[in-house]
């Protein structure tokens, strides 16, 4: 198989918005997709990828299920930000039609597709942990010299590398990591260390860190364009006479949920950063990125410690440490800025192409209102609160029973029992409800929002069960 001369061949290891660019930008030839542990468990990220490909009309793209855990560590997932499913808050996701590919293993599939391209033409784009990528080059070392480049979304440099807002966390102050104060979430430290230490890969690698992605925020204007199309800015455009497509509504839901949780967790309220498509753009449209006159860096990854949100154990595991190299010396490219107009223009043009071929059925204004799509565009939808005292006890009142429970206790119970809608929805509707959403370290998921304190909370048996279960 030969690459189309006008297109950049890319294998993606993978994300919803990155898929949109890879699948529908005319400058890209999407070779295949592999999934990896990260925002959610592997089976869920694989399902989400297949569902997104279904939504954007690319059933033809094969999806291979990759590594379920880091090379030497246990898997960690981002329920805080993306929810338990990896795409929480999304109600319009279609059922995927095509199954996960099983003709060969994911590493062999990646190798076959990339090695079939002419030398120095194909790119490997990684937007998750680097587990699959590290294992690929360990198994097939000849591939490193064959590909044109490796583009990675990951890491956080800090130290005012850019002027992007990196966010703050209540009780912790400013930080430049989004999982620990130092490290970006999707990090397999050992795999990352292998990649950035590789003598052949180093000079052909582009790193897109949080310092850059936090410049690319899904503002209200961006979300309006995403939902309605760029025609929304025509003075003659009338929103009331226009029903957005189901696909636009789906991607708006994804961004809006992310916006709410990012604002709540990191106090970035202008909009959420759109991390992963930047790694795709860096592969096929490098000229929109500013690397400060050709700067190149030596990149090191801290591999000692525990990659945890428990601040007593963190150390600096997963931290990205960069050293600027002398001019002309080969190293990793780390852009400091990107042309936002050109980038968002690529997202919009890809969305238009996807809408034209999407098999998703039409939806009504009423359906979209019910799904909360418009609310997510106009304002941030906060998912949980971080300002709770985790040791304070809040009253639960039931006829014949009065007791006190901490937010940790309530959330733990709901997490263990998957107590479902009837419990916390009933609590949310209670006229006495006065507390929302404990943010409990260890499983800070919007799926476990709990509203309690009120006579309508439920049965005495439920409360007794809660107390005995924990």
TrEMBL record:
* The Inosine/uridine-preferring nucleoside hydrolase domain, residue ranges: 11-344
Q: Organism source for this protein? A: Pyrenophora tritici-repentis (strain Pt-1C-BFP)
UniProt keywords, alphabetically: Glycosidase, Hydrolase
* Classification via SUPFAM superfamilies: Nucleoside hydrolase
From which lineage does this chain's organism come? Answer: Eukaryota, Fungi, Dikarya, Ascomycota, Pezizomycotina
- Extract one GO cellular component term from the record: cytosol
Q: Which InterPro entries match?
A: Inosine/uridine_hydrolase_dom, IUNH, Ribo_hydro-like
Do the record's keywords include Hydrolase?
Answer: yes
Does the keyword field hold Magnesium? no
Q: Give the record's GO biological process terms.
A: purine nucleoside catabolic process
Source domain of life is: Eukaryota
UniProt lists the family membership as follows: Belongs to the IUNH family.
* Protein name (Swiss-Prot/TrEMBL): Inosine-uridine preferring nucleoside hydrolase
- MF-aspect GO terms: purine nucleosidase activity
Chain ranges passing through the membrane? none
């Amino acid at each position: 198989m030969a690459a189309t001369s006008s297109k950049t061949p890319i294998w993606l290891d993978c994300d919803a918005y990155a898929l949109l660019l890879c699948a529908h930008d005319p400058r890209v030839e999407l070779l295949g997709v592999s999934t990896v542990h990260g925002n959610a468990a592997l089976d869920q990220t694989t399902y989400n990828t297949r569902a997104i490909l279904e939504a954007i009309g690319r059933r033809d793209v094969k999806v291979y299920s990759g590594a379920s855990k880091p090379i030497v560590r246990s898997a960690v997932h981002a329920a805080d930000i993306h929810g338990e499913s990896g795409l929480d808050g999304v109600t319009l996701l279609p059922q995927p039609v095509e199954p996960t590919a099983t003709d060969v293993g994911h590493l062999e599939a990646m190798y076959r597709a990339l090695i079939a391209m002419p030398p120095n033409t194909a790119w490997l784009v990684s937007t998750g942990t680097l587990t699959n990528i590290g294992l690929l080059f360990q198994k097939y070392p000849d591939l490193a010299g064959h590909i044109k480049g490796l583009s990675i979304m990951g890491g956080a440099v800090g130290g005012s590398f850019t002027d992007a807002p990196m966010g703050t966390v209540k009780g912790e102050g400013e930080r430049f990591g989004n999982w620990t104060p130092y490290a970006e979430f999707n990090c397999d430290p050992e795999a990352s260390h292998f990649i950035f230490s590789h003598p052949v890969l180093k000079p052909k690698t582009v790193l897109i860190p949080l310092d850059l992605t936090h410049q690319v925020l899904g503002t209200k204007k961006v979300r309006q364009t995403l939902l309605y199309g760029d025609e929304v800015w025509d003075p003659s455009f009338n929103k009331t006479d226009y029903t957005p497509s189901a696909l636009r509504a789906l991607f708006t839901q994804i961004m809006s949920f992310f916006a709410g949780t990012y604002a709540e967790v990191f106090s970035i309220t202008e909009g959420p950063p759109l991390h992963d498509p930047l790694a795709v753009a860096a592969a096929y449209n490098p000229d929109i990125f500013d690397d400060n006159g050709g700067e190149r860096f030596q990149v090191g990854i801290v591999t000692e410690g525990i990659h945890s949100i428990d601040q007593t154990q963190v150390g600096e595991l997963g931290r990205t440490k960069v050293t600027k190299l002398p001019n002309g010396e080969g190293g990793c490219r780390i852009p400091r800025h990107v042309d936002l107009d050109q980038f968002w223009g690529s997202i919009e043009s890809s969305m238009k192409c996807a809408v034209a071929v999407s098999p998703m059925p039409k939806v009504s204004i009423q359906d979209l209102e019910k799904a909360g799509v418009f609310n997510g565009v106009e304002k941030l939808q906060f998912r949980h609160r971080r300002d709770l005292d985790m040791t304070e006890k809040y009253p639960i009142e039931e006829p014949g029973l009065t007791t006190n429970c901490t937010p940790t206790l309530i959330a733990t119970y709901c997490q263990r029992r998957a107590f479902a809608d009837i419990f916390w929805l009933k609590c949310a509707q209670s006229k006495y409800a006065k507390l929302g959403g404990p943010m409990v370290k260890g499983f800070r998921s919007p799926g476990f929002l709990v509203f309690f304190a009120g006579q309508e909370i439920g049965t005495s048996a439920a409360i007794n069960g809660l107390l005995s279960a924990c």
